[in-house]
């Protein structure tokens, strides 16, 4: 681990040139695509996620690398601000020029459930390299072989641009992961995983003699609210859609809808009937590892035996390696105040969701007000509500404090790589206010520096008046594209 | 404390409208100016900083409140990014619209040394209110009366705009401060003060069940490097300038130059002669409180008795309430490796600096490489070096990793309120990558939220296609002013 961190640290100068960084990221995408068949086969052997999903995930990963290459080339992320001297200010303003510089070596903790997109060549690595930061990746033990293959591919891409291969380090094992976040030459960390593991590393990052930023994506319940009018309008479509979202990838998504507020009454009953039919017809699937399978089976059992909890379709163990999807129901009133049912407000990884039936808006609101932070919050509205009649806007405002992404009439599974994406949310969804997906993920690995009265001849090209690199910037107050 | 936090939390809705926020900030500036004589008198009675300095500081504080009002009106800080659906992306991009929302109640810990600009109505409060966050300020015990007066003034300004007066809370006492950062309704904290106090609060913020961002400005040595050529060119001007900067405000600035790398030899000797003359002719002054005076006297004594440390002008106790300025010298080689002289690499608050005499560039570089993080780093260059000949650019690059602001041929005391300002730096200068002065200080109190497929009728006005509020934004990839 120490060797990997030192090699990464020594490689940081080779990333200083933005044109080299973007070319490196594009080469990485190209080489990963070139090795697609081999990589997908290796990934499937270790994760059982299947070639269709894995091929798509690799394509997403390469798209993401190229998206960050475009961001590097554009340079808006440097946040250039230039102030010429201004004696009318109080106190007077000297010549000040600010932009952002890379933090240094970034520790990346891979996730199990996205062996490409949230692993060695995933969003944390892509955004860190784009920012000019070498990475040392802690490989996830569920796909160590694939991790080695992907790291080797990234290093080949680096060598094409004369970047030392140490720019992407890879370490294995629990101890190495724990020590990595404490290494004095590590300047920041990105993490995707469980609340328990992420919190332990967050605590270690904060307890260092020199604390470092720890951007962890931990756990999320991803609540879904279905209005009475929406259920009345399209109970069947919503029930079927929910079944698809909660069982997608055998429920192994951080944005799986884990709590659904559905109305009591006839429309809600129809919705549950559709959900029951669709989930009953969904095949059992293989979870990523046996520990997850054990946790799922135990977590389901513990939840199912709570008072007033029913299981229209019982989730649980399937064959030796599989689990079968299902869902629980509970009166929303049981969740409106602290008690043993709070267990239902904790994420249960795998193909299960909890449908809380509410009597009225205030009961639904009482449950929402008790939720911890989430990556997403979703509301299903009727056509009239979506058009602005009724409580649509109010519900959107009610969901906003709960999550980093708020969806209307959709499902949270599926996280687009886009400039406007925000994949993060109040704790425990994320340990910071940052995103791990989308263009602004690059901000995590930078810090600002201002130069005062530095002569033009000594200024970095990014900060010169004539703007030789054509960067978007704020120049004497005015935004320039 | 609990009452203050709850009142602040209850007031947050009143800050939702940006036009109300900017008007509130402008009224606050106006009322503070209106009460100038009274406030300056009260401040001087508690701090002994003198009416000239305090009048200037109040003007700065009002300028800062208005600068944030302008930032609120412009709205670029909302970081609006809009993506229309794009099926050509991998995976396809839905309609996504992102902006930033206020975090919630902000705890502000005031500094002793700026009773206006880094206290109740200072930069943390101004930027938090600008972001839409109510504040609860922990008053500094060195100016409790002034804190009450300023808080009352801010509340009068709030009431002019129908904002509940709880929007600015004020608490006194060590225990209240410790409990404040742990309060479940506090969402973030800003701090200016000592490493010990700041680190304790940072640790408490990180250890909460729900950790919160803690933006603390702690300690800084603010190194100054004087090249051989600069000393040869203008030893006297540099020596006099340094004396002015290190004794300004009786050395009670977080950006006081605390370590100066000056060359050995004749030019360096001339520089020291000027410094000696100027410091000897500087009057003793009153420190903010007796604890600081005791720490200063003890800190000086401990440093002065280290081997090879000389005191051309001995800093120390003056009369009962004052201290007299001075400086120490040490061969730079003593600081190039770990040892007892490391004490000289720690901030000593008050009118003292340490001049380390270096033999050559590599010795100076060795000292720089051992420094902890700083708010500022300064280099004095000759005219030729400033024009690009010699090591100027190299030195700038060497200083950049050490600090958040890098100055050429100037002095770090004096922190302009400007869009390009960065007043922060690697730990322990700051506990995060943020700034506490300048336009981007507002970023500390916001988090992004993305809306997915939200119908136009329900979207906040900030995120609508037609841009009714005229906000700068990124629209389908393109930056719009």
From TrEMBL, chains A, B:
Aldehyde dehydrogenase domain sequence ranges: 2-418
InterPro entries per record: Ald_DH/histidinol_DH, Ald_DH_C, Ald_DH_N, Aldehyde_DH_dom, Aldehyde_DH_Superfamily, ALDH_KGSADH
Entry-linked CDD domains: ALDH_KGSADH (cd07129)
Keyword Chloroplast in annotation: no
Keyword terms, alphabetized: Oxidoreductase
Catalytic activity: 2,5-dioxopentanoate + NADP(+) + H2O = 2-oxoglutarate + NADPH + 2 H(+); 2,5-dioxopentanoate + NAD(+) + H2O = 2-oxoglutarate + NADH + 2 H(+)
Single GO MF annotation: 2,5-dioxovalerate dehydrogenase (NADP+) activity
The protein's Enzyme Commission number: 1.2.1.26
Full protein name: 2,5-dioxovalerate dehydrogenase
Organism: Streptomyces flaveus
Classification lineage: Bacteria, Bacillati, Actinomycetota, Actinomycetes, Kitasatosporales
